Amino acid sequence: MTTTVKFTKMHGAGNDYIYVDTSIYHIDDPSAAAKAWSAPHTGIGSDGLVLIGRGDGRTADFTMRIFNADGSEALMCGNASRCIGKYLYEKGLTTAKEIRLQTLSGVKTLLLRTRDDNTVAGVTVDMLEPALSDKTKVRNETGSLHEAAIEADGKVYTGTFVSMGNPHFVVFTDNISSCDIARSGAALERHPIFPERCNIEFAEVLPDGNIRTRVWERGSGITLACGTGACATAVAAAVTGRAGRQTDIIMDGGRLSIEWREADNHVYLTGPAEFVFEGSIEMARTFQ
Question: Fewer beta carbons within 10 angstroms: which end of the chain, N or C?
């Protein structure tokens, strides 16, 4: 027996996910669904699956759960959060331009910028405070607050640990085009120093002060963009003196603007969110 599920494909700077409204469709095994539906040739093709739910009304208006292409559950995603804001507003599920979104790493506030035709032009996400050092759940033998060296795949990588509710290791380089993202990212993601695996960013500070970044996401591999990765890169650049508190992060899929405000120590992520297409897919019994 199968059930037909309607979905929406969206992307934020090329970071693409499948979105399902769980108030209409129940996905009993989202891990299996994410793996099957994310497959590029036999499924829909995506970086993962996002489930949108209703919040309790007191602390959150809506909820999100996000599953990577390998079926693992992520704590949150900045790009997916922006897409949810656009989804909720343009599909008439809310008229609010400030939305509280419950994630596994806390409640994030979405601030919507709309056009005269009631479409969403852009979304800013309050990503809350970044965490460094021991708060990243990284076993850092050096005790360094900012940078540490890790040996993997026969190379030594010097990077900065940052948690944006999920762990990141940001490696700065003078020439990002020379980085083997697939090989280095895979080696670092599962390094023993990261007990929960890790997202890996490779970044180059450009002459204009903006930062070119490529990302290896845990559970998904190379993706065109990563919202939390962009935030982590900006924070890492600031704490190591490579940039100020406001910068643009240029990823393979586009540009994201990051501001790490001194007033509240929160990181604010601003960028586009776009619909790609809508469709339906049969959900096998094993997913029910």
Answer: N
Q: Rounded to whole angstroms, how far apart are CA atoms 204 and 64?
A: 32
Task: Look at residue 142 and tell me whether its pLDDT is greater than 70.
Answer: no
Q: Render the burial of 6-40: b for 16+ CB within 10 Å, e for the rest.
A: ebbbbbbbbbbbbbbbeeeeebeebbbbbbbbbee
d(CA 131, CA 206): 25
| Measured CA angle at 18 (ends 13, 23), to 5 deg | 125
Q: Coil, strand or helix: which one is 167?
A: strand
Residues with active-site annotation:
77, 226
E-strand ranges in the chain read 3-12, 15-21, 48-54, 62-68, 73-74, 98-103, 106-114, 120-126, 147-152, 155-163, 167-172, 199-205, 211-217, 221-223, 246-251, 254-260, 267-271, 274-283
What's the pLDDT band for 138 if we cut at 50, 70, 90?
A: very low
Nearest to 95 by CA among 118, 64, 67: 118
Please give the DSSP secondary-structure letter assigned to residue 162: E
> In this structure, what token pair is assigned to residue 77?
């995603």
Question: 48 has which bridge partners?
Answer: 68
pLDDT digits (tens, 9 = 90+) for 87-125: 999 999 999 999 999 999 999 999 999 999 999 999 999
Query: pLDDT for 151-181, tens place per residue?
Result: 998 999 999 999 998 999 999 999 999 999 9
- 177 C-beta neighbours (distance < 10 Å), count: 8
Model confidence at 147, pLDDT cuts 50, 70, 90, reads confident
